[in-house]
Amino acid sequence: MSVKSSITNNVCTLTLCNSSRANSLTSDMCSQLVVALDEVERNPVVRVVVLTGDGMDLSSASSAAATPPFDAALAVFDRVAKFPKPTIAKMNGPALGGGVGLLFCTDIRIALDSAFIQLAEVKRGLIPAIISLYIVPQLGPSLSRQYFLTGERVSANTLVNCGGHIAACVSSTENLEAKVNEFAQILVQGAPNAQATIKHMVQFISDSSNSEPEKFAHIKKVFNDMLVSKEATYGMYKLHFAIKKCILHVI
User: Fold this and answer.
1) Contact 33, 102 (CB under 8 A)
2) Considering only CA atoms, which of 129, 133, 126 is closest in space to residue 104?
3) Averaged pLDDT for residues 206-223
4) Is 202 found in the same domain as 89?
5) Helices (H), strands (E): how many in the chain?
6) I want to staple 29 with a disulfide (CB 3.0 to 4.6 A). Which of 2, 44, 185, 213 is the partner?
7) What confidence tens digit (pLDDT) does each residue in 106-138 have?
């Protein structure tokens, strides 16, 4: 199997397993990852997905011969980017080419401080075409042009400091595990439908093809649906009694 799955404490870890090729995104791995995500979405026990790589790499570029077809590659990136449950990238090593695209499709990224990204396609006469759909909106046009044109290595620490594209850097694999678990357990505390709605809302608002009236209408619907949702009713019920308990304690 190119993708291994394990579940602990409502958190599913999906591990890319092709360490002899630095976990490159082959056609087989792409299809297996989509299938794994489909299974995870259907599993109500799983609240958070952690994406990582086997060995010393998160994921690297494929060789020209092993590069997945356009539709297969787009399908896996889009599946991760639009996955309704929170996703965390556990960056245990470098992310290259398509691996960078996968990284930028996740919600939260935690990295070893020795990790880096590199978009070196230009040095081989290639273009980071599909992954640009997910990288450019987050990095912005200026940094995207720089990293795409130079193919330079960009450290995880740099990505922390230039806009929070990585949430945190840690110094050891033990600290990486701890930090990922910390974020995962915070996410588990959130209401699942609210989290899915938030993810879709952010994507809708940040999509420049949607007009301002369309964005306004979307937000209005989100707001009105929220007021009558079971999650909000339960959440406000708990908040009411928590406040009441605090007041009685003070009195």
Assistant:
1) no
2) 133
3) 96
4) no
5) 10, 9
6) 2
7) 999 999 999 999 999 999 999 999 999 999 999
Residues facing 11 on adjacent strands? 8, 48
The single-letter code of the amino acid at 22 is A
- Residue 235 token pair: 């959440």
Domain count, the chain: 2
Dihedral sign from CA coordinates of 35, 138, 47, 112: positive
Nearest to 81 by CA among 208, 251, 221, 200: 200
Helix, strand, coil: what percent of the chain each, to 5? 55, 15, 30
3-state DSSP assignment of residue 116: strand
Output the CA torsion sign for 3, 6, 9, 10.
positive
Quote the pTM value: 0.90
Backbone angles phi, psi at 228, to 5 degrees: -110, 10
107 and 203 share one domain: no
